[in-house]
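Final report, results section. Input specification for complex C-07:
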Amino acid sequence: MSTEATEIRGIGHSVKRKEDGRLIRGKGTFIDDMQLPGMLYMSILRSPFAHATINGIDTSRAQAVTGVVAVVTGELMAQHNLAWMPTMSGDTQAVLATDKVRFQGQEVAAVIAEDPYVAKDAVELIDADYDALGVVVSPQQALASDAPVIRDEKEGQSDNHIYHWESGDAEATDRAFAQADRVVSLDTFYPRSHPAPLETCGCIADVNSATGQTTIYMTSQAPHAIRTVFALVTGLPEENIRIVSPDLGGGFGNKVPVYPGYVVATAASLLLGRPVKWIEDRSENLISTGFARDFHMHGELALKDDGTMLGLRTSLLADEGAFHADAQPSKLKVGLYHVVTGSYDMPAAHVAADGYYTNKAPGGVAYRCSFRVTEASYMIERLVQNAAYELGMDPADLRKKNFIRPEQFPYETPTGLVYDSGDYRGAMDLALETIGYDELRKEQEQRRADGKLWGVGIASFTEAVGAGPHKDYDILGLKMNDGAELRIHPTGKAILKISSITQGQGHETTFAQIVAEEIGIQPEDIKVQHGDTDNTPYGLGTYASRSTPTVGAATAMVSRRVIEKARKIAAHLLEVSEEDVEFTRPTFSVSGAPDKAVTIQDVAFAAYTNFPDGMESGLEASFYYDPPNLTFPFGTYAVAVEVDPDTGVWDVKRMVAVDDCGVRINPMIVEGQIHGGLTEGYAIAAMQQITFDEAGNCIGSTFIDYLLPTAVETPRFELGETMTPSPHHPIGAKGVGESATVGSPAAYVNAVIDALWPLGVRNIDMPLTSAKVWEAIEAAKAPA
Amino acid sequence: MEISVTVNGSARSADVEPRMLLAHVIREEFGLTGTHVGCDTTSCGACTVLLDGSPVKSCTMFGVQADGRDVTTVEGLADAAGLDPVQAAFQEEHGLQCGFCTPGMMLVGSALLERNPDPSDDDIRWAISGNLCRCTGYMNIVKAIQAAAKTKAEAAQAAAASA
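Structure output:
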């Protein structure tokens, strides 16, 4: 029965994406594309003040508008015990403000109308009366003894401090510093940024008043976790809640949290008995949802004169906004920032972090990174470059001297992470060779002699992704494990249901390839279903580069479970004992008699038509994966820039990115992920920042003020690859969606600082706008 | 106001409020949801359609301004013969990830190739500079438009040879 095997397009094949067919035809289904019968539209009134008491809200004029069905205020929500909701970090967040507003853009009231234009009209007619209060826009202001207390409604909260968190060994680190020949320090601010996916957040809440069935179509990267949170918040029975995330127009962490708009729309649908659609506009997205970063960091590196690293000490102030809503593992207050020792064999380290409330939007989302890994990577890679210059060493040489060597893995860091595998030197050597590092340094010398500002920057990052092992990683108590279900139908076609969801990463393609690799059914014959809580296994969703490390593993394991049963059926068909069956996908054959064989398709048919007595029919399985460890992708990025001293404009001349994400399932998609990540890294380094004035007004509330790179500014990337499989992942993959955003900002900034170092410039905080670079040059030129 | 618009070759009419944006007329009145709205400020280009063959951002035009004119949306790119070369190339070159900016990108690419059949890398980057993409870093979008240019040139050559 066996025929000449056609090549199975499993792991390592650049299979064209299954998602594309609908998306290139304009036939995708994004939330705003959906219409339900009788649907109403919701628009939200937001606070113009960053901090103010609410004296009263008069909705009468809004309610009188023809087409307005209801106006919802915090008072009404409070009657249903829904004025406040829990956050992902175990704090509380106002759904609609009742007592006071705590950031500009906070949700105050909502209009539900027959038409979206009418809803917006009516929002303008709500009269909310405020008394402005003192405003806090930075953690430095927040910790002042006379600072206004933002969360005065919280019992026992007498100041703006949220948490103090430490990692590592303070005493051991002190001892290391006592032995140092030299201590190099860096103070830097990683600015507030916003993921700004091109599709904003939104939902359609559809509560069936007859059955109580609550279906919420939602822009969510984590539908299952959201369903559980909704059940807890609303008291609705979880089995009656169905969250459906259809096509998502990007996420990048922005679509992980629960936002007040989702809750109000659901409450409105419950009260009115009709579906309610809520779609943010861009300004609402930028001012009220899912900010990222906003860390004021201090770092110190202890070294010997020969460059040997002895210890790292870092402390930081985190600006958490008005509600502590970080989407991150509950035990880790600053996420995985303790990966800050990076790629280096660091004998001792200590991290201390303090989080503060400010009058800014909540969020703290993992914007294209694994829980604050980006901030950590930036700190160590900037610090290492400055240390190299202080020591008179080449930054590449200082890195090479201190890299964790391949034979040291698994490597336990002084903050307790256990790196799985790595060859840091290998990735760096390839990056330096590709960019022609030695020649660039010579060229730089010549150019400097000619008065030009040329710079070369490197970042050799290590990420920590794939959260995570159940004993250490949970969100609100929900263990961060994920699942996959695989069913092979009689005709040999399969359906794979997974707990994560794609926002452009291509899961419908790559996860089919994993099954193809394991089982031998071609990816085009495997439908991947995701995003619907009624029809997929439980899991915590897609963010922090965790889909491949968790769901990818579950997919491989469920495939193996299916093959276990398939082998029994094959033995039955081949009339031999199970031990005599060999499987070389897609074929089961008899040991020693390879001509006697059946394919997986034959077995699938037999699973429904001709299976052994006593066996259950069908060919399917499910698997929930508890990762034994995180995975640790790494790489070296090298950037060459030219800085114009007269304008501060810096141009990226070369950008070489060598990534090692372990085994690559679909190289085309991996490279696409890296391109995108490098672009967002560039955006953060060069232009993206959400800023506030002293009154807490958000400057940067449109794409006119919050700058994103177009095709013209975006550098051209040259990619390279090394491959060090994860030893504990079933297919050796590590995850890649975010590496480039984590690793690249330091590379860009290091290149600019490298260019300006001889002038005396030691640091410029991101974003490195031309104005800031020019100012730094001018300041360095000015007589002291 | 009653408007008549040729949409993807078909005569369509609608009774719309004068303030209704063209993007909303296309999506809500004509039911063509491939045209997306990403920013409301003419910055992102997700809502790009072709108006009499030229790219416009349909979130920054009123529907009534399209009265009597010809609108092409992403749904009009493919014809009975199959995908437009630009669409095929976006899939082939991995020129899209989440797909939200893709309709606008493809329409701009298609309009570019109409007026410049052999664009350089820079020509393409400037042409799509009114359209933001958060996923791809643009590299593969540029490659896709270049590939589509090649396909179209080859098709034109083949047509000329057989004529």
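Chain A has a mean pLDDT of 96. The domain at 378-465+629-781 of chain A is CATH 3.30.365.10 (Aldehyde Oxidoreductase; domain 4). This concludes the modelling results for the funded period.
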